[in-house]
Amino acid sequence: MKKAVVVTGAAGCIGSEIVSTFSQQGYFVIGIDKNEITNHHANLKIQYDLVKLTKDPLELQRFYETITQHLDHHDVALTCLINNAAVQILEPLDQIDLENFYLSFDCNVVVPLCLTRTLLPQLTEAKGVVINIGSIHARQTKPAFVSYATSKSALAGLTRAMAVDLAGRVRVTCIEPAAIKTEMLLEGFAGDLEMLESLKKYHPTGTIGNPEEVAEFCYFLAESKTPFLNGESIALDGGIGCRLHDPA
């Protein structure tokens, strides 16, 4: 039976690359995003705000029925769930809007939990894998990243907890990228190419990452011949996490 993967945040740079990589490897790809998905490699495109799943059990049930109907219709087995969708809201601690803080947790933590729990029967049957896309901010962060960093730290904890709870049924891992060359990142450096070059040089690799690297890592984990790899949050950071930053 053909393998299927569910990819959230499929309209963004990283999500779109994940869609393409898995499609090219023969997967039936179900892409989900609140924005329009333009990548033609997605076999099924679902435009939907996943945060709704955290508010209404009926929404969750309808979502489950939609996914399972498509899996059955196309005669494919769900072997992988990639929780890539995320929201990044920057606010310093003394200016945090609690609604934004809650939204960060809903999108970055609760949605992955809901999707994993909801699709667990299919993932269990296939001895599948859940791949959470975390962030370097789970370990090292910067000013104004309070909501984002805290939620990504929680996602790392959720990864460990789910790996234990789903022992023998489903593997769960997390990829924690540092700076990745996305449109959003490049827009942030518009007009300041010197700063972008400085960021590249600050990484021991001398460069920032590409969406393709994240996608290939996801595929490796999904197809891994090392099933002992489980419950781990793995840095994909060009070595920047090894570098001591001090004024000396």
Automatic annotation (TrEMBL):
Gene: dauE
Keyword Oxidoreductase: yes
Enzyme Commission number(s) of this protein: 1.1.1.362
Protein name: Aklaviketone reductase DauE
Taxonomic classification: Bacteria, Pseudomonadati, Pseudomonadota, Gammaproteobacteria, Cellvibrionales
Native source species: BD1-7 clade bacterium
Database matches in Pfam families: adh_short_C2 (PF13561)
InterPro entries, per the entry: NAD(P)-bd_dom_sf (IPR036291), Sc_DH/Rdtase_CS (IPR020904), SDR_fam (IPR002347)
Record's keyword terms, sorted: Oxidoreductase
Family note: Belongs to the short-chain dehydrogenases/reductases (SDR) family.
GO MF terms held by the record: oxidoreductase activity
